[in-house]
Design goal:
The structure is a homodimer of 214-residue chains. Chain A is mainly α and 214 residues long. Chain A has a domain of 56 residues: Multidrug-efflux Transporter Regulator, Chain: A, Domain 2 (Orthogonal Bundle). Chain A is 66% helix and 3% strand. In chain A, strands 1-2 form a two-stranded antiparallel ribbon. Chain A is elongated. Chains A and B meet through helix 3, helix 5, helix 6, helix 7 and helix 8 of A and helix 3, helix 5, helix 6, helix 7 and helix 8 of B.
């Protein structure tokens, strides 16, 4: 198909498509004449992946490029590729707040207590420590008390995610599933947690017990 | 204290502090002479809140301003203030992807099935629908099958969050707790979900069962 049809199919404007090609996110089309290129279904799929990661996941163009490099990486063990994909999408918040060593220790304790097979200096562990140190700095260190409730919930979610991803067989599809699941699943989780908050807050502060409104 | 001490106490550079004052995020100090202002503990606390929301929560300066307006809003019922705080921190992803009407219907069904007291056009419901439509567009509509596992986990998290927040009594502190909990708690949740993924992936793809590494 020509670039105009690619644009209509995906809802992505032509100049944006050209930008993604220049930035290396989208492979160039096959030249069919000196000034015309042809695109196929792989371009449609890749564009949807790019837009999902940017619009819904809130990733930057640079992070999307990193993630796509991982999605396309050949060979390597599945576990290592999954690890690299996770690293690419884990934000690295500015650290250096006071209380960070104590927060790191609390994260390490959590990992040992749960028996999780994860390095204590994993980027996600560091991101969690930075967030916990920020809680502490705001006088809300009591948040530590709910960590195991969060961990119960996360184990349940991770099991559901892995069971879902496990239906895919080839590695490339698997890695794309994991990346999409991690980013879009994170957006679903964040939105759903807020909805559950709305429900719990309504039950608690609006009065009435247990019956739905409307 | 002078601005230099405020900067040392919070780790926020002096020009950044001045920027926050200009942008209306931080109240100006009390003028003690024509070119010198004095700051107190309320400024320290506010700066920590701002940095937590920006660095850990990833909020923009504009969103932080919106959130702080809510934190400072007088009166109103607690439920309404909590709702406004949630609205301010719920991202509004670009919508308009195909499959959105079906995704909205799926979210509505979920809300009814769970008996959640939340409007079906709540911003968080819309954010969830956009993410689900993106899954669908990538051929991963099967993600719908894990929504109830996510919902179980979110109810557990929301209960823990509300129990935690419920220890605070006055409304202003309550709203700040909710905002901090929603934003920083979201960062903790996101990092912890990734750690749980690392664990589950290690167990599944690295071989070995149940025993921790190292």
């Amino acid at each position: 198909m020509r670039i105009g049809e690619l644009s209509r199919t995906t809802g992505v404007a032509v100049p944006t498509i050209k930008f993604y090609v220049r930035e290396g996110l989208l492979p160039a089309g096959r030249l069919t004449s000196p000034n015309q290129a042809s695109y196929d279904d792989s371009h449609v799929r890749r564009l949807r992946l790019i837009r999902g990661l940017i619009d819904v996941g809130g990733l930057s163009v640079a992070t999307v490029r990193e993630v796509l490099t991982v999605v396309e990486a050949p060979g390597e063990s599945v576990h290592n590729v999954l690890g690299a994909a996770h690293d690419a999408i884990t934000p690295r918040p500015a650290s250096g707040s006071e209380g960070l060593p104590e927060a790191r220790e609390a994260v390490g304790e959590l990992i040992r207590r749960r028996g999780w097979r994860a390095e204590e200096d994993h980027p996600a562990a560091e991101a969690m420590a930075v967030a916990l140190a920020a809680f502490q700095g705001l006088g809300q260190g009591a948040f530590m008390e709910v960590l195991d409730d969060y961990a119960d919930a996360c184990e349940r979610i991770a099991d559901a995610d892995l069971a879902y991803v496990g239906r895919t067989t080839e590695v490339e599809g698997l890695v794309e599933s994991v990346v999409v699941g991690a980013v879009l699943g994170g957006a679903v989780l964040s939105a759903m947690r807020r909805l559950a908050h709305v429900d719990r807050s309504a039950r608690r502060f609006e009065g009435g017990e247990g019956e739905a409104t409307g």
